[in-house]
Amino acid sequence: MIPVSLILLIALKASFGGTVKGTVFDTYENKPVTRANVMIHGLEVSAIPPGKAYGAAVDRNGSFEIKEIPVGTYIFRVSSRGYVSFMDTISLTQPNQLLVKNILLEPALVGSSPAREQYHQRLAEENAKQPILTIQLKSYTFKDGFITINPSVQNSSTVPIVLLRINECINPITPIVKDSTGEIIRSNLITIDCIGKSFPDSTDTIEVQPSQTVDYPPVTLELYDFRLLPRGIYSISLVYRFRKPRQLSFTNIRPGYRTEYKSEIETITTALRGEFLSLNSIIFENKP
Asked: Is 38 in contact with 19 (CB distance < 8 Å)?
């Protein structure tokens, strides 16, 4: 028999938890921003105490839902690498309140020159005949629930290519994690907004000459804690993905942005575009 006090506690918790749900889409392409994170936390933005933040990752349909939020006023923040973060103040004023927030994120990239577009068109034509970037997963390490993979990359084009490194705010590498049945496993952690550079610069690039093979910096699957996943066999592959830069509306009201962000603009307009899947996968046995 369940004690009356416990029943009351469960009832109180259920009656006072509000829900915030909605969608996050790209404002230009009207596609789901599937790598976006939604965070709801107190008005003290500079510090988020452990256990005091509410958050969710956006799913493949662009939807999110955060439940059991107490009545109160909060900072509502939506962020994704490669996009300008959205921030607003929201209030839940009554128990069991449902608040719907449908967000359009602006791409955080700028336009490219005609000469640079010709360079990328040449690479696209070569890639149509034969993949110009080869990714090999050489080895991995497992520590404290997290996997770090050591990849190498080879340039099969006739001209140098520039790859982006992973930094705090831009991540061109996406892991694809599958279980033994072949089902894709979603990440089980979320990240708080990056606090570093919103744009990569020349220090965040790797130049690979034609026919050259180089080591890419180690890639840690920071959103997958395998201690929280069922035991079993998993296969992990990596995708290098970077889209065509687009003009941001806010740059039009910054007359000096081309000189202020010269290094960043050069980096993101030079970086290789496209989607390149690793040739092989890492097979990992998750066990206690």
From this structure: no
pLDDT tens, residue by residue, 205-231: 999 999 999 999 999 999 999 999 999
- Total count of domains within the chain: 2
Alpha helices in 43-192 (DSSP H): 114-129
- How does 103-131 read in b/e, with b if 16+ C-beta sit within 10 Å? bebbbbbbebeeeeeebbeebeeebeeeb
The CATH number of the domain holding residue 207 is 2.60.40.2970
pLDDT, one tens digit per residue, over 39-81 is 988 765 444 455 566 889 999 899 999 998 888 888 899 988 7
**What is the Cβ-side half-sphere exposure of residue 127, based on CA atoms within 13 angstroms?**
16
Instruction: Give the 3-state secondary structure percentages of the chain, helix then strand then coil, rounded to 5.
Output: 20, 40, 40
Domain assignment of residue 8, given as a range: 4-106
Domain check: are 56 and 199 in the same one? no
Q: Go through 219-230 and write b for each residue having 16 or more CB atoms within 10 A of its CB, e for each that does not.
A: bbbebbebeeee
